[in-house]
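Recall that a protein's primary structure is simply its ordered list of amino acids. Everything else, from secondary elements to tertiary packing, is in principle encoded there. The following example makes that idea concrete.
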Amino acid sequence: MRRMPIQKPRKGSITAMYKRVFLHVRSHIGLLVGAVFCIVTVSALEFVIPQLTQYTIDHVIPGKQYSKLLQVGAGMLAAALLLGLFNYCSSRLMASVGQRSIYDLRGELYRHIQTLDIDFFDRNRTGDLMSRVTSDVGMLQQLISSGMLSIVTDSFTFILVAAYMLWIDWELTVIILATFPIMFIVTRYFSKRLRLSFKRVQETVGEVSNHLQDTLSSIRLIKWFSSEDYEGERFAVKSRDNMNANIGTVKLRAVYEPLIDLLSYAGLAAVLLFGAMRTMDGALTVGTIVMFMSYLRLLQNPVRSFSRTINTVQQSAAAYERIVEILDARPAVKDKPDAVVLGPIEGHIRFRNVDFAYHTGTPVLRQLNLDIPAGKMTALVGSSGAGKSTITHLMTRFYDPQQGTVTVDGIPLADVAADSLRSQMGIVSQDILLLNGTIRDNIAYGKRDATDEQIIAAAKAANAHDFIQSFPDGYNAQIGERGVKLSGGQKQRLSIARALLRDPRIIILDEATSSLDTESERAIQDALQQLLHGRTSLVIAHRLSTVRQADSIHVLDKGQVIESGSHESLLNLGGKYTQLYELQFPQDNKDNAAAGKPVAALASDRRRQQAP
């Protein structure tokens, strides 16, 4: 299995970011066109107002045209009202485009994460993934709604005004524009550092989210060990890192923005100085120089605005890099284009010469050969780390082996559509997975179209119906996060009911009763008899009492099957299985020594005594 690391962001990520964002924006092209129309209108109206100012100074005032003052005032008021209206429309339309586009992007990111294999989640922390889906995507929303609006408006205004100023007085305009290359160099210098700084901020946000997710999901452990102060200190360290990263960003902005303002005022001083000289020489009118000053403001506003927008752009670029790392990740385990969609299966699973390692150089399974017959109960036993749970991971195709093949009914799992395989499997594990919701929701999770009658029937078969009815809300009772309001036995019976409702052909029991008390285990064993009847079942257990009735038992050691047979035949071998049995049932050894019988004979006597 080839591990796929998260890819590093590509060069030119701002351009790539805009291209990718545009793929989402273009699906809302109608709103975007309306926003662009409003932006163009805003720029045109801003262009008109200085013209009215020049006309008033150069013509109305010298000519004492009192009758024109009302018209000029009405024109300015109308322009201002229209300016406010179209600014409102453009802001609202761009905000709508931004929100809709981010909705699409967040949905794409979430769906993509769902397609990634288990190995990806082994390598990435939950809190960091949550931060990328929420915080990082939210940063891009600022870019689309306000940042993009500002960039488009300012660019259009800058081009229009600069062209007109060059036409009016190119010499004065060139003096003004001489400051812009310096602004560009300053902006380029700071933009790289701002992006790295903003990325560090986002990474520290991810670390804070990781810590919150870890501690809040383990709050009972923290309370048990009175570790509140310790965890508070750990959180303070991560929060302090986030604070320092933000302060570093503020320092860069505190230097960058005043520099841009200084260059802007230098341009204003140049216009005032040379413009006044030209006016005193009679080359320009007072109205023209006032108009030039107004246009200079319009010319410099985009630059000042861009100095602020660049913060949003770089912040968004840093967030985008973290998002694209996820979007570019590809699962190592995925269906082939011509993958076989399984119909109803018999459930015969075979492992042939299988080698597997989670990490290179650390093999878990070595040349494993294992046969799990259809309709039979097969058990796996062995020490921790022998590879028992890994076999279930390969059966469900969470991973693919590096060598060898795993087949179902003779078809290699690598050639099978994973959904069609997993839809015919059920699993009941020691780590019970329940969702925050009702009992009904959790039982029906694997078969969401199940009727109430089917859900109740599954609960009864799992010996869960009686305790469910004891709740005031019955099947509509809320179980809390991960089933916190239920006992271990109750949660396990819900897990069995969920598996029963799905009616799987293959059942995997992974230490399903290891953490339960004797009374709960007895009730669940009865439920398991219902679940396993007539199905292919693989039982993993440390307790050998759980696997005695298995049709075949395989003993694993260091990733290989070293013994196989029935419970009694394995005891007669006197090998690893016998050692495990003697460790768990030391009383049998004492009785054996007293009676002079082998362990297998004594175990047989006990079964006869317990038989009805």
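Residues 228-280 form the longest helix (53 residues). The radius of gyration is 36 Å.
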